[in-house]
Specification:
Shape: globular
Distance between the termini: 39 Å
Order of helices and strands: EHEHEHEHEHHEHHHEH
Number of helices: 10
Radius of gyration: 17 Å
Number of strands: 7
Structural class: alpha/beta
Strand order of the largest sheet: 3-2-1-4-5-6-7
Length: 280
């Protein structure tokens, strides 16, 4: 590891990451020469979504990193155990866990199916807990161990909790898991934080679920999330843990205040008009 490439030789284990924000984070780390293991279900191309765990691995290698694609389900305890052991075996340890895998369904409580409710709880909350927990014994051996969950600050206001109760519970659950781990393993020097954007991010989920072209035009690119996540996981673990971070605030702390280059379309999104879910 060098000052100019702090993630060189470091190992990240990420849930999901075949596309979108997770892949952007992986590619940012790969530019340093990081090792990245992806635990994802996307073994074959999806008819409507670009990317598989294998194509993501190819992009990571092309960006300068080492990749370990692991086909598996974060809901499956055996797959989690295998992913942790494979990552340790391939790269010799784990320095960062990124809880990226997440399911979104903004249906109201009467419309949300029980199956989808359970899926969001299993992937978002249980998956975050089980993957992080499984990695803790190896994270303890890292010089700079981090757990980073892509989830929002706790904000149980009627505006958001009442808008989509099932999804809100699942995302807030990810945050509560992470804050709990931060407190529980502070003595081991493991930093555990969450990070969430102030505006929507231009991904397939935003395009398909949150309003199509109008919302995409007011969104920022996944690169803004990736750059902020990079800032967090390259900090000394002892400097901050148990924080509910906002992407734009993290970048501001790093001296990045001109966000125009992150606009999904020309023109910076107006945060007053297009706030992301969970943020006031």
């Amino acid at each position: 590891m060098t000052d100019s490439a702090p993630l060189a030789g470091r190992t990240i284990l990420m849930s999901g990451g075949s596309r979108g924000i997770g892949l952007a984070i992986a590619l940012r780390a790969a530019a340093d020469g990081a090792n990245i293991a992806l635990l994802a279900k996307t073994d074959a191309p999806h008819p409507k979504l670009e990317g598989t765990v294998h194509s993501a691995a190819e992009q990571i290698r092309a960006a300068g990193g080492n990749a370990l694609p692991i086909v598996g389900d974060v809901r499956d305890d055996d797959d989690i155990t295998q992913a942790v052991l494979m990552t340790q075996g391939e790269f010799g340890g784990i320095d960062v866990v990124v809880n990226n895998a997440s399911v979104i369904d903004l249906s109201g409580s009467l419309e949300l199916s029980a199956k989808k409710y359970d899926l969001m709880q299993d992937v978002n909350v249980r998956g975050t807990f089980m993957l992080s927990r499984a990695a803790v014994p190896i994270l303890r051996e890292s010089e700079n161990p981090h757990i980073l969950s892509l989830s929002p600050p706790l904000n149980p206001t009627p505006r958001w909790l009442g808008a989509h109760t099932g999804y809100s519970l699942a995302k807030f659950g990810m945050t509560m898991v992470t804050l709990g781990l931060a407190a529980e393993f502070a003595g081991d020097g493991i930093a555990a934080n969450t990070i969430w954007p102030r505006t929507t991010i231009a991904t397939a989920a935003v395009q398909n679920l949150l309003g199509g072209d109008r919302v995409m035009a007011a969104s920022r690119t996944p690169q803004i999330y990736a750059d902020a996540a990079y800032e967090v996981i390259t900090r000394p673990a002892g400097s901050a843990t148990g924080r509910q971070l906002i992407v734009e605030d993290v970048l501001a702390e790093a001296g990045v205040t001109d966000l125009a280059r992150y606009a999904a379309v020309p023109g910076t999104p107006d945060e007053r008009l297009y706030p992301d879910i969970f943020l006031d």
